[in-house]
Amino acid sequence: LPAVLATTRRELGTDPTHQALLGQISTPTLVVHGTGDLAVAYDGGVRLAELIPGADLVTLEGMGHQPQDPARWQAIAEAVIGHIDRS
Questions:
Q1: CB neighbours (10 Å) of residue 21?
Q2: pLDDT tens for residues 17-68?
Q3: Contact 52, 25 (CB under 8 A)
Q4: Are 33 and 45 in contact (CB under 8 A)?
Q5: Quick check: pTM over 0.90?
Q6: Rounded to 10 degrees, what is the CA torsion of 51, 54, 60, 62?
């Protein structure tokens, strides 16, 4: 945790910011995020999708940081395949 905090504090003063760099992504991007993620809050996934131009967000209700349930793997695979087909 101290390393994460130090990195976060250090990056706050960088130029360009992470937000600006995310705004430069031109590759079709898929953000898959679970509403039960305790490592990165769901609103962080929403914000990531907002910051990347044209990004698609797939929300998996109740999923945590890692899809432990094989039923989730199917949903993720379908989202990825659908994203590739649209790209």
A1: 12
A2: 788 889 999 999 999 999 999 888 999 999 999 999 999 999 999 898 887 7
A3: yes
A4: yes
A5: no
A6: 20
